Amino acid sequence: MYNKKLGLYKPSLILTLAWVLLNFTIYPLRARSHSVALDTNSVSNSFFQSDTPSAKPDLDFDGDGRPDQITTAGGGLYFLPPNATEQESFDDVGRPPKRTSGGSRGLCSDQLIAIVPGSSEIVEATGNCSNDSKSFLALTLAESPSFWFYVPKQSTPELTVDFVLLDDKQHSVVQETIRLSGTPGIVSVRLSKPLETDQVYRWQFSVVVNRQSPSSNPKVEGLVKRIIPNSTLSSKLKAATSPRERIAVYASHGIWHDAMTGLAELRYQKPDDLRLERDWEDFLGSVGLRAIAVKPLVDCCIGKGTGNRE
């Protein structure tokens, strides 16, 4: 009888022992997995808790998928190109405009450079910026935006530049000659007439070295289009609580001229602000122009005209 009972209990005993052994094996694995998860969360939390004042999480007020703040844990300010629909008329403006003045020799710092988004990075240490960099269409919300250029040291201290604005039919809208101060660096030229909305303009900026031979003068070109902000962009600009946040909204929505001018004005006001210095380097670097971020901001022009700084 005893053997019969033992035979009945033996299968259940084996199952019980197997269950106990299995739990002893699995529990350490579960505990280890839980510990790794906690460690991962700790690393993630420490990454986003930066001591940098500008290290804020991205904000997306209206859910359109574009960040609106000085971005990510690194605190960098970067320009994001406009949406494809906002560049729809880019292909109808003729030959691609040049972001650099050209010339097969010399450093990039010896070139006239248009400070706009463009193709290929401009590298300080080489002279390979002759014909490689093309200007991209730049957007603005301003009626009369400012245009920015890097003007290198010239052979004569008394220089003039010609600034020309052409409409979509290649008719001249603005044509002005401006006297430069003679100091090499980054200068601005403010447009003297308002832009029409939703029209692509071509502009040309040339340093007059030889008035008798215009084709030999250093020249850069670009495209500009004034747009009306939609309700989403208007809401984001209204919600911005500081100039830096407003600049970040412009930059994250592809509004080049307004972001560039706003950031340059802050740099004028606070030249020793290290946080703004980093913003400036990151912003220009995001469009391939980090090489000229170290160049000084200088007063452009002498006397009246579009070159007076805002």
Helix content: 25-40%
Number of strands: 8
Largest sheet: 5 strands, mixed
> Using only CA atoms, what is the Rg?
30 Å
Strand content: 15-25%
The ordered H/E elements are HEEEEEEEEHHHH
Largest sheet, spatial ordering of strands: 2-8-7-4-5
Counting helices, strands and paired strands, the structural category is: alpha+beta
Shape verdict: globular
Q: Count the helices. How many?
A: 5
Stretches where pLDDT is under 50 for at least 5 consecutive residues are 1-6, 20-64, 69-73, 303-310
State the end-to-end distance: 107 Å
Give the mean pLDDT. Answer: 75
Annotation keywords:
alpha+beta, 30% helix, globular, disordered N terminus, disordered C terminus
Explained architecture:
The chain is of the alpha+beta class and 310 residues long. The protein has helices spanning 2-48, 231-239, 243-252, 256-269, 274-285; strands at 113-114, 137-140, 146-151, 160-166, 172-179, 185-190, 200-207, 219-226. The strands form two sheets. The protein has a five-stranded mixed beta sheet, covered by helices on one side. A three-stranded antiparallel beta sheet has the order 1-3-6, covered by helices on one side. The longest helix has 47 residues, at 2-48. The radius of gyration is 30 Å and the shape is globular.
In short:
This protein has 310 residues and is of the alpha+beta class.
Write the layout of secondary structure elements.
Elements: H1 2-48, E1 113-114, E2 137-140, E3 146-151, E4 160-166, E5 172-179, E6 185-190, E7 200-207, E8 219-226, H2 231-239, H3 243-252, H4 256-269, H5 274-285
